[in-house]
Write a structure and sequence with these properties.
The protein starts with 11 loop residues before the first strand and ends in a 6-residue tail after the last strand. Helix 8 crosses helix 9. By secondary structure, it is an alpha/beta fold. The radius of gyration is 21 Å and the shape is globular. The strands form five sheets. Strands 8, 11, 12, 13, 14, 15, 16, 17 and 18 form a nine-stranded parallel beta sheet that branches. A six-stranded mixed beta sheet has the order 3-2-7-22-23-24, covered by helices on one side. It has two domains: about 90 residues, Roll (Urease, subunit C, domain 1), CATH 2.30.40; about 300 residues, TIM Barrel (Alpha-Beta Barrel). InterPro entries: Amidohydro-rel, GlcNAc_6-P_deAcase, Metal-dep_hydrolase_composite, Metal_Hydrolase.
Length: about 400
């Protein structure tokens, strides 16, 4: 008789009685995991004559890829734009806490700051895989300081910079290092920005357009030079105008290079963007939608005063403002909340809502071969969700790293 042992000695887990998000649709199918990867059961059955070492009954839950947050400024009292001696412990804390909200990978985001802050913080950001210690770190998102003063939002004006004669060298001097940098948000209308966009793109760094007064032709030129993302669409940019739709016009532009897709971030918290605007964006360019939290240090804490880099911000309910003003300054929304609001506001399918927080950010960063799907051989980073898309359990590399106590599993 054939042995039921796998060719590999690593244990095999089989997740049964679930609805699996695969191929952009939910289907009743078991999920198989070995050595932190999604396993093809046909290979296991027919080539290896193997079977599962352990079975887990998902009790009808949805299994979906882990969420990826590419714009998160902090949370739970931790501000990623404040240089501290124990900065790494802050990254660890946020990484652990966001597991309960379905985030399995994230990009710590730094808002506009003095060069000395970048020089202190960036060497302390380590790109790493997730696990029981917390969500994986994909690299830093540098939101500024090369942005427009007119659309600075919550960014401190005295720290905003333009590019000098040797533009890319100026950027390097400002940040100190690009070793851990994954995304840079800049305003494309700034002189010499094209040179910077080209150089960043050559190094595999995603360039995002935001905090900008760029018109559509300037935005299109930036995309032609390599930009692929828009930072929090509609916020901190020129409003849509029918004769020149500005950066928003990229969603339907016919000047996007062949084979290139422009993605756009949306803060789907019910505060930053009216549901009608959310629907317009989604219907215009559904495959480009990337849900982000833009969460600040006050996420997960009681209302009151907190920080966002160099600024003091005040939380009033779900609103966050620069203290003493009505200027929005990030959010206190969690990713699972954003997914549920997006689903409700747009009436899209469950699959579409989940992909906006998983597949699309993975595609943006060029890691869809590893993250953002439950395809065979991809990382076994996934969630168990109920029908209302509340997270019941979070898995990274096939290991349970968080679960709701009431799950009873």
């Amino acid at each position: 008789m054939p042995s039921n042992k796998s060719v590999s000695d690593a244990p095999i887990a089989q997740f049964t009685n679930c609805r699996l998000l695969r191929g952009r649709r939910l289907q009743r199918e078991d999920l198989w995991v070995r050595e932190g990867k999604i396993l093809n059961p046909e290979k296991l059955f027919f080539d290896e004559k193997g079977s599962a070492d352990v079975q887990l009954d998902c009790k009808g839950c949805i299994l979906a890829p882990g969420f990826i947050d590419v714009q998160i400024n902090g949370g739970f009292g931790v501000d990623f734009s404040l240089a501290t001696d124990d900065f790494r412990s802050g990254i660890d804390l946020v990484g652990r806490k966001i597991l309960s909200h379905g985030v399995t990978s994230f990009c710590p985001t730094l808002v506009t700051s003095p060069p000395s802050v970048y020089h202190q913080i960036l060497p302390q950001i380590d790109v790493r895989n997730g696990g029981a210690h917390g969500a994986g770190v994909l690299g830093a998102h540098m939101e500024g300081p090369f942005i427009s003063k007119e659309k600075k939002g919550a960014h401190p004006e005295h720290c905003i910079r333009t590019f000098e004669e040797n533009a890319f060298q100026d950027l390097l001097a400002t940040y100190g290092s690009l070793d851990c940098v994954r995304i840079v948000t800049l305003a494309p209308e700034i002189k010499r920005s094209s040179e910077v966009i080209r150089e960043l793109t050559k190094r595999g760094i995603c360039v995002s357009l935001g905090h900008s007064v760029a018109n559509l032709s300037q935005a299109e030129e930036a995309v032609q030079h390599g930009a692929t993302f828009i930072t929090h669409l509609f916020n901190a940019m020129l409003p849509f105008h029918h004769r020149d739709p500005g950066i928003v016009g990229l969603l339907t532009s016919d000047k996007i290079p062949a084979g290139r897709r422009v993605f756009y971030g949306m803060i789907s918290d019910g505060i930053h963007t009216n549901p009608a605007a959310l629907r317009i964006a989604h219907r215009a360019h559904p495959k480009g939608m990337v849900l982000v939290t833009d969460a600040i240090a006050g996420m997960g804490l009681a209302p009151g005063r907190h920080t966002l880099g160099q600024q003091v911000v005040e939380i009033d309910g779900l609103n966050t403002y620069i203290a003493g003003t009505k200027t929005l300054s990030g959010s206190v929304a969690t990713m699972d909340t954003c997914v549920r609001h997006f689903l409700e506001a747009t009436g899209c399918s469950v699959e579409t809502a989940l992909e906006a927080a998983s597949l699309h950010p993975a595609q943006l960063l060029g890691i869809e071969d590893r993250k953002g799907t439950l395809n065979y051989d991809s990382d076994a980073d996934f969630l168990m969700l109920d029908d209302s898309l509340h997270v019941q359990a979070t898995y990274i590399a096939g290991e349970e790293v968080w679960r709701r106590d009431a799950l009873g599993m």
